[in-house]
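Notes, Module 5: Reading structure tokens.

Key idea: the token line is not a picture. It is a compressed description, and you learn to read it the same way you learned to read a sequence, by spotting repeated patterns. We will look at two proteins. The first is printed below with its tokens.
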Amino acid sequence: MKSSTLSLTLTLVAAMAQAAPTATQSFPDEFKVGLTFYGAAGASYDMSAPTDDTAYPITNPLSVSSISSGGGGNCNFFGGEGGEGFLPNAGTVEISPPQTQVSVICDVA
């Protein structure tokens, strides 16, 4: 009886130790939203933004008139001239007036 109780106790302790999160626990790469920025005359560029609700700088100087995404996150865009755009999950958002984008914040859709 004592050996089966000891065995059960050790099994439970081992299972709880595996399930308990730690401060240094590593996670797989954060999910990223694929974004395409469109400007005049067919110019465009792509970037991926993590869905961690953090502001990330955009350094491409292209004046952007629309932004599209295949989905996976809600994103807010901030232009260099004060314009803002919101892209809820998949789709396209028009940026008016067209302007260089300076930052993006995305979260999980």
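Here is the second protein, with the sequence above and the tokens below, as before.
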Amino acid sequence: MQNNTDESPLYLFDHSFVSKMSLTISQTGSYNPPSCFGHDIFSVLGPKRPDHRWLIIGPERSGSTFHKDPNATSAWNAVIRGAKYWIMFPPRPNDPPPPGVFVSEDQSEVTSPLSIAEWLLGFHAQARKTQGCMEGICREGEVLHVPSGWWHLVINLEESIAVTQNFVPEAHLGRVLDFLKNKPEQVSGFGKDVGSPYDLFVEKMEETYPDLLEKGIRDMERIYAGKKRKWEELVNGYEAQNEGKAGFSFGFAVQDDDVP
């Protein structure tokens, strides 16, 4: 890693490091998820759960381009060695993605510069002036929280080792249910034996946290109703503006986080 001159250095993610290293995850074990993030509701899935924890190793200049974490999950990232620069954008209604990032209409595909270096040279200054931008450096012994739906880019400022984990907190259960149910083509990480991740999650929640599931479903329905309402407002407003005009076409993306 010390003599690497690649523009996009290799960034290693190991999802099986716990078993390889015979680690135990508990308060008295090798490490324990930070208690401040609360209970991880996705744990009800047991062995059916997608990979959700990784050991991440990379040299200086390695990192991840802009993305949102899978399945509307949240994440925490704990730096064991080194330092990481983060730049993040919260999900704001009707806001476009970060400068230099383009998404397809259904938000299933993300296009950005080929390397982090290209993005930094072409869009970093603009991004720092964009409303909602948050940035900072996370150093050895520090933990960063990535809430559900946040765009984020990270680059290692020096050789770095970190542990990260995706999780579902109670506050974002409705968002995760909405994603699993209404964006099945974008759901990732589940095994081929899982026909419907949404149905599986609901089944496990009914067995373990029925009251919490009921609240989550109400939140999901509110989120979906809000998206539908915004769609109708946009369509009706456009039709009103173009009443009497012959022939038109239009296209726009409904943001994943349009509901306050």
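Summary for the second protein:
- The CA atoms of residues 102 and 111 lie 5 Å apart.
- The longest strand covers residues 74-81.
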